[in-house]
Here is the input.
Amino acid sequence: MKKITTSLYMPHEIEIEKVDENRVKIYTYPFQSGFAVTVAHPLRRLLLGSSAGYAVTAIKIDGVKHEFDSIRGMLEDVSLFILNLKNIRFKIKDESNKAELNYTFTGYKEISGSDLENETVEVVTPDVHLATINEDTELNFSIIVEKGIGYVPSEDLRENLPEEYIGVDAFFTPVRKAVYTIENMLVEDDPTFEKIVFDIQTDGQIPPVQAFKEAIEALNEQISIFSKAIDIDVAAPQDDFTNSVEMKKLLQNVEDLGLSARSFNCLDRANIKHVAELSLMSELELKGLKNLGKKSFEEITSKLESIGFPVGYKFDDDFLAALKKKLEELKSQTGDA
Here is the structure.
């Protein structure tokens, strides 16, 4: 059964299940009804579009003028050769943004990704087939590997290519799969809460958990522009402080943060009733609370960061004065002063 609340329920659980070396499932919960998709959808888009990876952007093959040519003694034509090459995933070992690589193969050989690894690059897809050449064939080619994000078609690369190089469609993202499902779950007799299950797979250039972290960082960076609105509001005339959104956030009860019972009870015993009291503390003061363990400390600091007022937050002097005055009024009204 739903209850009347004055603030959003904050999800506080996250679990990571390693499916294999390049695939994980991430479970995050509980979200209020409708909020899981609000969080999951932009994260999925950023997973697929914000992680940097390496891709082949150009190729030069001795005796070849265009991608529809053929090479004597090679089973594949050039277009299939390039298609196979795009499926081979590289990592530049010194993490530089660009590398030019030269290869020579002679005699009968089935060339695969592992044959392209050298002191400059690591190949994370060693088993991918590239080409098959005959015993009387010599194959000489060079490729350019670059770092980037998203997808860049070959048409956009041609103007900057060295002479004789053929542009290659560059699919940089190392994330090969990013899907999510939303499941209902029961929280305090309310069956409408939700759990997000992310299924993330990469090509091996980066671990899937790293891709997830980078997507979160990208999301935070993209929405950080809106934090300027908070700065503007905090810098407003003092008459506006009492009714500002920030003041209301800070004066809400700590129970509205959705803390675990252990964390809430610790704060309750310390007679800490309002979010502002936590934000005004230093990390040392918070850690010094009796019976506050490491997990509770991490949970509390995470909650405060999520609402934009972490422990030790530096308030504007005028806003700080108004906040302390309001806290004193609230405590005198409840007899906690």
About this structure: Confidence is low (pLDDT under 50) at residues 232-239. The radius of gyration is 28 Å. The domain at 53-171 is CATH 2.170.120.12 (RNA Polymerase Alpha Subunit; Chain A, domain 2).
